[in-house]
Amino acid sequence: MQKSFLVIVILLFTICNSLLANESYTKEEIEKMISKMVILGFNGENINQNDEIYKDIKAGLGGVILFDKDPNDKKKVKNVRNKEQLKKLTSQLQSISKQKLLISIDQEGGIVQRLKVEDGFVNTLKASDVALKGEDFARQTYKLLAKDLRESGINTDFAPVVDLAINKDNKVIVTRGRSFGQTSNEVIKYSSIFVDELKKQNIISVLKHFPGHGSSLGDSHLGFVDITNTWNEKELEPYKYFIKNNKVDMIMTAHVYNKNLDAINPATLSYNINTKLLRNKLGFEGVLVSDDLQMYAISKHYDLKQTLTLSINSGVNMLLFANQLAKPITLKEIVDTVYSQILNKQISLEQIIKSNQRIDLMMGI
Q1: Per residue in 185-202, pLDDT tens?
Q2: Is 19 within a domain?
Q3: What is the domain-level CATH number for residue 253?
Q4: 251 Cβ partners below 8 Å, 6+ apart?
């Protein structure tokens, strides 16, 4: 019995070593590559060497996402108190990393702006109002927003929204004024201005939410969203424009399900949508980032292992865990799970390498 157990252990050890040797990567190198694919939210207006996020960045974390308020206590500051404090925090974060850290935020305007006017930042109107005021107004608006981000040390904005305002009752995009309009022409015109102004300040823009969230009835923050009967192929037109004109750095997936595109999984976890449609058909070569993987559309239906395995294999390059809606996920949990799945041959190491190459190219590393 003892001898059999020893043989099994040696066999497993040989297989693991063979896998890693064949790819010429050590366990530590693979763990660092996995870490680079992760964006985490954390608590704290400043950080020190004892903080988990400090250790995570030292371990190779790819990025952070910042929020103004703690969702469990709206009176409590999470990361942003004012401009001076934020600049100090982002400087601290970047100083920990040996390479460029993706420091991100949701700053669209209107209801979605983590940098508030009462904290010393410029106020930005919601997208639907910006579109009503014309191109010159939009250019000035997003110039000021981009300048605020650069001065605060933020290098990535999860904006603009390029969803079409197809469903007037859509509660997550349309009724909140997050879309520039009903037509792709309107959306392309104003989102292009937004992207251009961010680029002038060396800020990475993120188009969202692929393959389109503007026709949905539900909110993927709260649960499962089925767009099978409402989605229209014209929702892809903004993505086609940005990809064709080489104006897109990053695209964010949506946690929406469309059985005509994938009979089993929502977009974030779908190889059919993220690789066959976005990569192969539309020709996107940049970084694909997931929407928050703790949103209930995902976390209520998939465990961590399933979520990580499906999203990475689908073609997602960066995994976002905002740590806003649920029990915080640690970098170690993510890395250990992915590494184990690589050893089990459930996740291709090639996907990890390819994602790192895309991230490095985008970050200018």
Answers
A1: 999 999 999 999 999 999
A2: no
A3: 3.20.20.300
A4: 206, 207, 208, 210, 239, 278, 284, 286, 287, 288, 289
